[in-house]
Amino acid sequence: MNNTITESVTVMPIARKDDTYVLRLCLNQGLMTPGMLRRVLEVIEKYNLPSLRATTGQRMNLEGIPAGKLDEICDFLGTRVEKCAPGATVCPGKGTCRLGIQETTDLGNAIVELVKQNGPYPYKVKSGVSGCKMSCGLSYVRDIGLVATAKGWNVFFGGCALQNAAPGILIGEHVSNEDALALLQKALVFYRENGEKRERTAATVTRLGKQALLDAVTA
């Protein structure tokens, strides 16, 4: 580790109610290289920061940033942004996990690109890709959710993990990577064109009805 060259980290400041900030590390699928980790550890030691906390979206929060040091610490870490780019919660998949039955990493990246290309949307879109029915990617309750099967992917849209939690609508069953992405593109266009401001996908589907979504993705 002592010979590791540090790498820049993209961060998003989030104000806390105790007059401190959290810096969210905008990671892709939770991946931190040794160089990124070293840069973060240097900041923790230099500024005596209290903790680094994992998020459910496979990001990391660097906590306890004093307001007066925010700009300095952002500059030290790398690039400051107002909002992290869309990401996906992705399990290790077949290549690593003994339970995985499909590869997940490349498809997760493809979904992130698809979300970027079809926006902007009425509100945030969260995605999850799971290599088996255990759903470690939280796929059932994400706006976009893919769950691997032996024959391909089950594709869900409009899941919700808020107060009225519910799984997404099944819009594709045992489909290929390519067919899953095609279904999701239609579902995202449906949401983009029909969702109201600050309305998540689940609320849009509830308001317009399940059949409206199914008609849109099969048209």
Report on the structure:
Helices cover 32% and strands 24% of the residues. A 5-stranded mixed beta sheet has the order 3-4-2-1-5, covered by helices on one side. Helix 3 packs parallel to helix 4 and helix 4 crosses helix 6. A hairpin with a 5-residue loop joins strand 3 and strand 4. It is α/β, with parallel strands linked by helices. The protein has 6 helices and 10 strands.
Which short descriptors sum up this protein?
alpha/beta; 6 helices; 10 strands; 5-stranded mixed β-sheet
Overall shape = globular
Helix content: 25-40%
β-strand percent reads 15-25%
Distance from N terminus to C terminus (CA atoms, Å) equals 54 Å
CA-atom Rg in angstroms = 19 Å
**Main β sheet profile:** 5 strands, mixed
Counted beta strands: 10
Query: What structural class results from the helix and strand content?
Result: alpha/beta
Q: Kindly state the mean pLDDT as a whole number? A: 95
SSE string, helix = H, strand = E?
EEHEEHEEHEEEEHHH
Uncertain runs: none
Number of helices: 6
Q: How are the strands ordered across the major sheet?
A: 3-4-2-1-5
